[in-house]
């Protein structure tokens, strides 16, 4: 029997040789990689939930670059194309992949999820099917944010957000803001957001939230907080709640703030186990749905950006060259701004183009 062929993206640092470049792969010169909250957690603690870093690992899964070389079987992109990179590539054609839910495949390669290396490097080899040529008007920086935008698309699809919906989003970090952009584009009539941070709530307003509520550092009662949400929405509760903090208080308040028959989408990852008002949810027929990243979202994310239905640019608040990774990570850790972009070394002409 032939040996199993595992797709294994490879990071290539300056001067390294490409050892095994397959016919269905592309070599990408990396351009922009946005730092994600999970990258900061791995950098700080070396683990996230059940994922533990056991050997040095390259971080970064929100990236874009320029095709340097293509395998002989590649037809979707060519040398010189600017591309957005989908960081999760299934290794097996298992039942999940066959059902179109490749995000759930237990053997998926996912950049910067241990032990799989990520995108913060000069060159990266990836499966061609998981890179997407950028429309002319989408910059490489914006393309890096197709990843968190994809989480927003998947969350709104899971929540069945539709025309006229009233939506409540907990957390105005990058993921909450991406959910906001997508819920708005899907036709939500009102979107209420909450967070601890006044700065982030201000950003949410600039990006289209109808209203915001600040959460106090030690909030007492999720039922009282949910009542504020209902009053602000002017109805008996949100039809869809997108929980993007992982905090126990927000999961509880999100359930109480959702109207009977509505949907609560758990996007945020917090403690492994939290208390939830389960009979309240059950007896009001709430649908509580999980989210694991995304499937089949990049074409939609790029189309939404190129047609200006969503604008991710306000989320880009800091840029650092890859050589200053520590400064970039410190900035992200402080929670200053929203998205920090690490830029790979490039010539001045490319630099100009990336900033257009
Ligand atoms: N399920 C998935 O596939 C998936 C994918 C990406 C991210 N995530 C998770 O989504 C969450 C959000 O990601 P992010 O990048 O926006 O993170 P982030 O840490 O930048 O943002 C989280 C926001 O929530 C706010 N917050 C935290 N606790 C709160 C509370 N009790 N009340 C009100 N606001 C509170 C913070 O102030 C912050 O603005 C994280 O938990 C992340 O791990 C999940
Ligand atoms: Zn991320």
TrEMBL record:
UniProt-listed SUPFAM superfamilies: GroES-like (SSF50129), NAD(P)-binding Rossmann-fold domains (SSF51735)
Gene3D superfamilies the record matches: Medium-chain alcohol dehydrogenases, catalytic domain (3.90.180.10), NAD(P)-binding Rossmann-like Domain (3.40.50.720)
Stored Pfam families: ADH_N, ADH_zinc_N
GO biological process: one example: sorbitol catabolic process
Gene Ontology CC: motile cilium
Alphabetical list of CDD domains matching this protein: sorbitol_DH
Gene name per UniProt: LOC103189579
Source organism superkingdom: Eukaryota
Family: Belongs to the zinc-containing alcohol dehydrogenase family.
Cofactor section: Zn(2+)
InterPro entries named among the record's database cross-references: ADH-like_C, ADH-like_N, ADH_Zn_CS, ER, GroES-like_sf, NAD(P)-bd_dom_sf, SDH-like
Protein name, entry field: Sorbitol dehydrogenase
GO molecular function, one term: zinc ion binding
PROSITE patterns reported in the protein's UniProt record: ADH_ZINC
Keyword list, A-Z: Metal-binding, Oxidoreductase, Zinc
Residue ranges annotated for the Enoyl reductase (ER) domain, each copy included: 11-342
